[in-house]
Every structure is written in C-alpha cells, then in structure tokens.
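It is worth pausing here to work through a concrete case rather than discussing structure prediction in the abstract. The textbook approach is simple: state the sequence, then state the predicted structure, then interpret. We follow exactly that order.
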Amino acid sequence: MTDSKRKLQIEYEATFKNVDKGRIREKLKKNGAKLVYPEFLQKRTVFHLPRGHEIKGAWLRTRKEADRITMSLKVVDGSNIKDQKEICLKIDDYKQAELFLTSIGCIKKAYQENKREKWLLGDVEITIEEWPFLEPYVEVEGKSEEAVREVSKKLGLDYGKAFFGSADSIIGEKYGIPVNLINDHTPLIVFGEGNPFLVHLKNKK
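Step two, the predicted structure:
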C-alpha cells in the first residue's frame, strides 16, 4: 500500500440497489430515523488526478450538496467495504474549487447530477439516491462495518446483497457497458436530457 493510500480514511458504506423509495422512507420512520434534508438536486464536477500523480481507482470531485459544498478525493480499488476510501474537505465556493483543481493539472471529465435525500439513525447516515436513467438505491454509511450491518438489518436490507462501489459500476452493470466509457467518455449525466448510456450501447454493437 502506498503512503497516499495509508492516509485515506476508510468509508464504511454499503449500497443497496433497486429500492422502493416509499418503502425505505416508511422503514426509516418506523425505526425513528431523523430526516436531515428532503430530496434535492445534487450537482458535481468530476476530475482526473494530475498526470504523474494517479492513484488506482481514484478521482477528484467538487460537489454542491444540500447544506454545504465539498471537494473530495475518492478511491474505490476493490469490491469490499474496506476498499472504499475518501478525503473530504468543506469549502465555500464551487467554481473556485473547479479552478483550483484545473490549475494544479487536474483534468475535468464530467458534470453530473443526481437526487439525494438524507436521514440519520443514531450516528449512521442513510441516503436515498437516484441518478438519471438508473433505478433508486440506498447508501448506508457509518463509523464501522458493524454499524452499517446493524442499520441495514433494521431497514430490511440484505447485507449479503450489498454493493461496495460507486454509481458508475451500477450504471455499467445495468447497461452492459465498460465503466471506462462512463467515467472517461460521458461528460454530461443530467436529468431531462437524452440517455448517454444508450448511445454507448448502440455504438458498442
């Protein structure tokens, strides 16, 4: 493991695909979860790391969330929960963050939107996510794998079917297209536009 990876914090997060949003909300309410913020449109810009400083499975991101703006280094280099790592900074200017990253040699690869709703059960965060052209899914994030397992069980989610990774892999699985097409050749993933994944699928044939 490289020094850079040692410094990254493990992101204990499990994803459960193809969920019914209404049913999950009812489960959350039944278990006494607190709604942190209702569903909103989340915006992000994604970047490659500067050439010569690449990390396997890594990307940089600026994101406009419901209550803050963040800049993150994300790494997913395996299929287990401990293979997800992150460094996240709170910032105050989305555009300046983009300028900062491009100024140090990062290459912008995409602008993306998704819908997100956040709940809290104890100290475990549950988000209901929906991306353009993809069925809703739930992310359960806690301070340990045990905490994630426990809350997943309370919500009726089968941990044995949990997915550990990012939305690009879920999209790739649904449409049968390589993840690199989503990451490196899909500059716009937004609601209200044509489905770019069908274009990739058509070109693949």
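Step three, interpretation. The two ends are 39 Å apart (CA to CA). Helices lie at 3-7, 21-30, 94-103, 145-154, 167-175, 179-184, 196-204.
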